[in-house]
Amino acid sequence: MAYTFPKDFLWGGATAANQFEGAYNVDGKGLSVQDVTPRGGVPAKPGDHNPLITDKPTADNLKLEGIDFYHRYKEDIALFAEMGFKVFRLSIAWSRIFPNGDELEPNEAGLQFYDKVFDELSKYGIEPLVTLSHYETPLHLARQYNGWANRDLISFYERYVSTVFTRYKDKVKYWLTFNEVNSVLHAPFMSGGIATPFEELSKQDLYQAVHHELVASALATKVGHEINPDFKIGCMVLAMPAYGMTSNPLDQLAVRQFENQNYLFSDIHARGKYPNYIKRFFKENDIEIQFAEGDEELLKHTVDFISFSYYMSVAAAHNPEAYNSGRGNIMGGISNPYLEASEWGWQIDPVGLRLVLNDFYDRYQLPLFIVENGLGAKDILVEGPNGPTVEDDYRIDYLQKHLVQVGEALQDGVELLGYTTWGPIDLVSASTAELSKRYGFIYVDRNDDGTGTLARYKKKSFNWYKEVIATNGESLYR
Predict the structure, then answer these.
(1) Phi, psi (degrees; rounded to nearest 5) at 264
(2) Among 195, 92, 183, 108, which Cα is nearest to 149's?
(3) Cβ neighbours of residue 210 closer than 8 Å, sequence gap 6 or more
């Protein structure tokens, strides 16, 4: 049965500065951890090259140029407006504003760039949704301080967010503190700028870094609401539901333990304190979180909404070695025999999105926001009646099935602010640093070897998504 989404539903797309802006050394920008990871940021494995010994970015790092949004933002925003975007998620590159991360004064040229972007979005009536830290910790903070393992980063982050909150208080309403904040457990360098090699990083130091990030996130929420009480500030977590491989109660317990790793982050953001289940985990693993004076009170500054990425689900078992492991967005799991997978091994599970929406809403009774969802695929550019295009029916099928499940969740009673597809325009993959893993409605002529004109072409999915937005979801049921 056809369903029309709420009249104020925010349709749009999501990006990250380090994956599409380019201009890595322009207008005073400093280096970020992304500028020295030309092979992608996850997963860190024993024996991997330590990016911190790289003296300068290497020419084969596609993220250095990205898709040159820095110089083409007007053209790209016009295309988003043509699709009818109500919202556009982007991140501010911390190292554009504070090149090393620990300066006392911001870089004015960096601030001016985002002024221009927000003004351009405003021209088309597109609401910006801004991620404050999206896998792009200033490299100096990783090298000099060991990233979020060092409590000093809280004050550096506070200075940064206070600067951008104040600068853009009349231009931006929706903010996210950290992208996929729970990913620091699996990709500590990319997610948290932690320089300690993964295999040498103790659980004590890792969870202490988590604590620093959570305190910083709560502090940002407090500061943001003081600067503009109308700000809507959310957390952002990587959602990956798990199913038990069998009805064995031990498999169901494994599901609970897997999902608690992720719930930890949203629980603290939404409830303002550490949950009891993690206290047992800390005790059993000899972890003792060091609270500074005031931390407990700061954590009580909870978020206005919960946002998340959703790409796939996994299966869990008490004896995972007996099954084939799957690959996912940072976090792996066991392959589910009932699901198909993308070219990159990510299992496709539209119903899982409905489950996530209901689980989060039942747990927190806070508004939700789907801020990443999409299909990475190897697109082939062909000549169409109106010029080059991509016949990406597979992407349309993926998104249509997921959005129908979003509609089901809305009818279940879930309060959902909006939906932004990941990579509405092709950009560089965070996990693999490839451009051939394309998500967009807009094809960008750039290849994994760095060649290409950077020209933009509309894929078949461009007009499909345009119609979805124009009909407020009704076309999904035709």
Answers:
(1) -50, -45
(2) 195
(3) 148, 184, 185, 265
Cite the beta strand spans of 245-364 per DSSP E.
305-310, 314-316, 325-326, 333-334
Determine the residue type at 317: A
Q: Where are the alpha helices (DSSP H) in 134-275?
A: 139-145, 152-167, 188-192, 203-227, 249-271
Task: Identify whether 372 is a catalytic site residue.
Answer: yes
Tell me how crowded residue 383 is: count the other CB atoms within 10 A of its CB. Answer: 8
Q: pLDDT at position 46, please?
A: 42
Query: 66 CB contacts (<8 Å, ≥6 apart)?
Result: 18, 19, 20, 21, 22, 23, 427, 428
Contact (CB, 8 A) for 448 and 436: yes
In contact, 32 and 442? CB cutoff 8 Å:
no
Six-digit token string for 419: 């939906």
> CB of 445 within 8 A of CB of 454?
yes
**Span 223-262, pLDDT tens digits:** 999 999 999 999 999 999 999 999 999 999 999 999 999 9
Helix then strand then coil, in percent of the chain rounded to 5, is 40, 15, 40
Give the pLDDT band (50/70/90) at residue 328. Answer: low
pLDDT of residue 59: 77
Catalytic residue among 65, 180, 213, 372: 372
Question: Would you list the domain boundaries of the chain?
Answer: 10-477
Bridge-based pairing of strands 325-326 and 232-239 is: unpaired
Among 144, 200, 21, which Cα is nearest to 93's? 21
Amino acid of residue 276 = N
Which are the contacts of 26, defined by CB distance < 8 A and separation ≥ 6?
70
287 exposed, middle or buried (CB, 10 Å; 0-12, 13-18, 19+)?
middle
**What's the pLDDT band for 331 if we cut at 50, 70, 90?**
low
pLDDT tens digit sequence for 394-416: 999 999 999 999 999 999 999 99
- Our measurement of the distance from residue 178's CA atom to the centroid of its chain's CA atoms, rounded to an integer in Å, reads 8
Element holding 397 (H helix, E strand) = helix 393-412
What span, in angstroms and rounded, lies between the C-alpha atoms of 150 and 49? Answer: 23
Q: Which residue has the higher pLDDT, 2 or 445?
A: 445
443, 379 contact by CB (below 8 A): yes
For tokens 């330590």, name the residue.
50
Q: According to DSSP H, which parts of 94-138 are helical?
A: 94-97, 108-123
Spell out the residues 6+ positions from residue 34 whose beta carbon is closer than 8 angstroms to its own.
18, 19, 41, 63, 135, 136, 190
Class of the CATH domain delimited by 10-477? alpha beta
- Say what the pTM is: 0.96
